[in-house]
Structure formats: structure tokens, C-alpha cells
Amino acid sequence: MVLSISGLLEDLIYSHPGGIPAPEAGLKVQAENVTEISLKILQKLLKEKKPFFLFLHYWDPHAPYKPPFPFNRLFWKKDFPENESLLDFMISQYDGEIAYCDSEVGRLLEFLSDNGLFDKTIIIVTADHGENLMEHGNYMGHRGLYDCITRIPLIIRFPNKEYKGVIDSFAQHIDITPTILTMLDAKIPSTVDGISLINVIENKKVLKLNILQ
After folding, report:
1. For the chain, what is the domain count?
2. CB hemisphere CA count around 157 (13 angstroms)
3. How far is CA 108 from CA 6, 102, 121, 151, in A?
4. Using CA atoms, how far apart are residues 49 and 68, in angstroms rounded to an integer?
């Protein structure tokens, strides 16, 4: 499978050694590929001195857990087991994929810093789901509404370190768009779901989830 984006990158091959265990999902792209194409786009925008909105989807960490060397050895110092479904081994590879993805995100942030963009850019990190590593009997999956599946990070770095701290509050993905629009002093269209989290951040308020019966 080949990916090409507006002539910014020639052929990008889906290079991950494993395939997602679902035919409709295609193959998994390694984090370094995502970083490389992102840097090419940023370099182009930097030359044109244009503001930008860049959405990046790093697929690592995700099943199948096959981090590249040396990350596959970072948390597993013994010989690889014959049965790679051994839980301790799989968790070590999952942790290795987290470390691998973290290093690639670090490369991107380093580029922003080196080119004077770091303190001019709103940076948001989140995930689409957590992972069930046999906590509830489901191996290598994310089915169900358990905390390990639904409780995911939402990290926002404001330009010039405008806000700091940790807020233990309910939030949803649909809140990200209105939050960004508020930060840009832009009007939130009536068609946009969710709420801006700026009031929560400024007042350290905790949002409550209303469940309709």
C-alpha cells in the first residue's frame, strides 16, 4: 500500500513488520513515518511563513505490539519467548511501543523548538482509547467501557506556558475543537458539539457527566 500527500512526500510505504488483525484496518504505519512526513510538511509551511493546523495520528502503541529495536529490548532483557502471547512479554512490548512513539513525538517537538515555533504553537496530545491487558479478560483489545479503555490522557501545552497544572475533570474528544476555537478568539459554530475547557482550566472547575436514563 502506498500513501502520497499533495506531492509533499514521494511514496510512503506502510513499513510496520506486523499487520493489524482486522482486514478492513489495513496495515500499521510506524511512528517514524508519521514524523518524517510531518517534518516535510512543517518545513514547507515554515518557508511559506504560514500559520498551520496539523493533525497527527501516531498508530503506535497499538496491537500488534512490535516496537523496532532497541525499543523491543528496552523492557525485556531476556531471550524472546517462543510463545509471544506471554502476558509479561506483551506488556514489555506495549511499553516499548509507548517509548518508541514518545521518542518520535520528541523529534517533532525538537523541530518546533529549533525553528522558533514551540512557544507559538498550541500542542495537544490525546488518544482514541486505552488498552485492556488482561485486566478484564480481554487480551490485546479495547472492547468495553472500563477505565483502562476510556480513561485516556488529554495534555494541552499553551504557548508561553500560559497555564500550568493538572485538572482531574471529565472531558471528551468533542471538547477539543471548541477549546481550540476559544484559545484563538474564534466564534464556536452552533453545529460544533462539546464545550470549551478554558473555563475549566482557568477556574479549576470539575465537570460532571450527566447520563440520561
Report:
1. 2
2. 9
3. 21, 10, 12, 25
4. 35
Q: Is the peptide bond before 61 cis (omega within 30 degrees of 0)?
A: yes
CA gyration radius, the chain:
19
pLDDT averaged over every residue in the chain:
81
CATH code of 23's domain: 3.40.720.10
pTM score = 0.81
Angle (CA) 66 106 48, round 5°: 120
Same domain, 73 and 173: no
Length of the chain: 213
Same domain, 26 and 100: yes
Report the amino acid identity of residue 194: G
pLDDT digits (tens, 9 = 90+) for 28-62: 678 998 999 899 989 998 998 888 889 998 988 88
Instruction: Count CA atoms closer than 13 A to 24's CA, side-chain side.
Output: 0
